[in-house]
Automatic annotation (TrEMBL):
One of its GO terms (cellular component) is mitochondrion. PANTHER family: DIABLO HOMOLOG, MITOCHONDRIAL, DIABLO IAP-BINDING MITOCHONDRIAL PROTEIN. The gene is diablo. Belongs to the Smac/DIABLO protein family. One of its GO terms (biological process) is intrinsic apoptotic signaling pathway in response to oxidative stress. It comes from Echeneis naucrates (Live sharksucker). This is Direct IAP-binding protein with low pI. Pfam families: Smac_DIABLO. It is found in: Mitochondrion. Keywords: Apoptosis, Mitochondrion, Transit peptide. It comes from the Eukaryota.
Length: 234
């Protein structure tokens, strides 16, 4: 009879301990490369200890987790950099095309001075004005994307520094290499826009000179058409 009572007491104690154990919040399991965390609950049953392992996997150190987090940051910043670099290069290319189109229109107008009717001349000027607006819009787009690109470069440099200090040397080197490649690509694209701006400036100078020559020729023609009688003194 006493043995039965002890058995009932042990069973009650076991059930109470189990309820307490399973009513506790389970540890949050984070996925950082692999599932981790170990939890061992000890359950008192009678006079002995019973170890109940829930999940046993490799436990990672703080340094390892920091290095992995730093690698993730460098990957994200490199993605941001690649997208802004592509957008900036495309914007610069479109700006250069717009400038060259404007140059062609202005040269065509200069070459046609004195050969067009007023209506034709006004029509060409409307096209030139529209193309100048297009050039301005493309330039504004370049400035907008360049601002994002500069931020991306700074972010990558900061991420590379953080990765290096945390011990993720490979991630740091990769991030710095990505920055260098992006800078070279953007610099090559900028050469196209600089060349286009230079040719546009030359075209404007040529246009001013041609317009001055054309105005002088018109004035000379007007003077030649005046009868000599009007030129003689009384």
């Amino acid at each position: 009879m006493a043995a039965l009572r002890r058995g009932a007491v042990y069973l009650t104690l076991f059930r109470s301990s189990a309820r307490v154990l399973f009513s506790c919040k389970r540890p949050t399991v984070h996925k950082v490369g692999k599932w981790m965390y170990t939890s061992i609950a000890t359950l008192t049953v009678g006079s002995g200890l019973c170890a109940v392992p829930f999940k046993q996997v490799e436990s990672l150190s703080h340094d390892t987790l920091i290095r992995r987090a730093a690698s993730l940051v460098t990957d994200s910043s490199s993605t941001f950099l690649s997208q802004t670099t592509l957008a900036l290069i495309d914007a610069i290319t479109e700006y250069s095309k717009a400038v060259h189109t404007l140059i062609a229109l202005q040269r065509q107008y200069v070459a046609s001075l004195g050969k067009l009717s007023p209506a034709e001349e006004d029509s060409i000027w409307q096209v030139i004005i529209g193309q100048r607006a297009e050039v301005k819009n493309r330039h504004d787009e370049c400035m907008r994307y360049e601002s994002s690109w500069v931020s991306a470069v700074r972010m990558c440099e900061t991420a590379a520094e953080a990765a290096y200090t945390s011990g993720a040397e490979h991630a740091s080197i990769t991030s710095r290499t990505n920055v260098q490649v992006a800078q070279v690509q953007v610099e090559e694209a900028r050469k196209l826009s600089v060349d286009a701006d230079k040719k546009l400036a030359e075209t404007k100078v040529m246009e001013i000179e041609k317009m001055a020559q054309y105005a002088a020729s018109i004035q000379n023609n007007d003077e030649e058409e005046i009868p000599d009688a009007y030129l003689r003194e009384d």
